[in-house]
Amino acid sequence: MADGIARIGGAIAGHRIQARRAGTFAKPRNGCPDVKSRFCQVTGGLVRQSGPGALGRGRSELASIGRPDVPGSHSSQRRARGCTEAGERQVLARGFKLQAETTPGSANLFLHHEQGRLLLHKEDGCFIDRKGNVSFNREEMLELTDGYPDRLSTNALTRPLMQDYALPVLAAVLGPSELAYWGILGPAFREFGLSMPILVPRQSFTYLEPNVAKLLDKYSLSVEEALTEWAQRKSDWLSKQDEWKLEQQFDRVKQQFLELYAPIMNTVSAVQPGLASLAATNRDKIIEQMKYLESRSIDAIAKQHETSLRQWDRIQLSLSPLDKPQERVYGTIHFWNRYGSEWLAMWNDVPYEAIGGQRLVEGLTN
């Protein structure tokens, strides 16, 4: 592993870049890590035994690797914009919607500034941000690019080109939206003499916790049903607990009442037409009171099965919290805190699926 890192570190355009083995990042100054440093430390420690290396885009040595026509730099932003616009037309011509669109006048560059990360635009020969915090003419932009390359970074549409130039990429692991907007980058890769890497769908998982698996068995519920029919299946289960068939009884009584009440409405209307409205109001109030009693009765049954209903809710909260994919709400940290580092290490044994997509994983606990 160390030899491989050394080769990578020495092969990138002859520049001095320190490639570090994951988990060996320097300690933050003053013992107070920023979010990025802490992320590197934690993730590096988790995958240390697997052998990956880490290369930080923010390091000035990496940012300095470039030449005048590096994709996204000031001298080639017009070429990059023209290529992405051509890619957009190709995608639209094939009947697909755009997941990311080029902004007219965009320089495809971010400036790291005391006001934050500012997106630069080209206007009247100058590079400016939308709020007017900064403005650079061509000469000033050249000086910034040559002297302080780490203060500039590419945007989402041109970052794939920059990273491929800095460190040729064999494959890029991407989520669904990223895969979609990479579709417009083909012309840009060709324009800058680069080969688009293999696009690998990101692996997506729903983790079935052991206690939730037991609840599924208890209520004869499959994972697919829990994800797509949970509310209906829960309602059906509660209805089966109603040994008195309250819903059917109330439906029958309401129907009988309406049939018995109809002749009375006809009679009072004949006596005085103005009473028809009063009779209808009276009928509706009686039906409303029946529905209220029905609702309270069903609530009483639910109260008797409160523990079981909480278990139904536990299923939904685990597999589809907030009606969203599990990984969008909990992420890895939630389960890592619950099951420990051993749980995370066991993911190395989960088979890889080249086509990606959502997959169910269970077990992973001792």
From TrEMBL:
A Pfam family of this chain: Rossmann-like_BshC
Domain Bacillithiol biosynthesis BshC C-terminal coiled-coil: 205-351
Region annotation (Disordered) ranges: 51-82
Stretches assigned to the Bacillithiol biosynthesis BshC N-terminal Rossmann-like domain: 84-202
Entries under InterPro entries matching the protein: CC_BshC (IPR055399), Rossmann-like_BshC (IPR055398)
Name of the protein described by the UniProt record: Bacillithiol biosynthesis BshC
Recorded name of the encoding gene: bshC
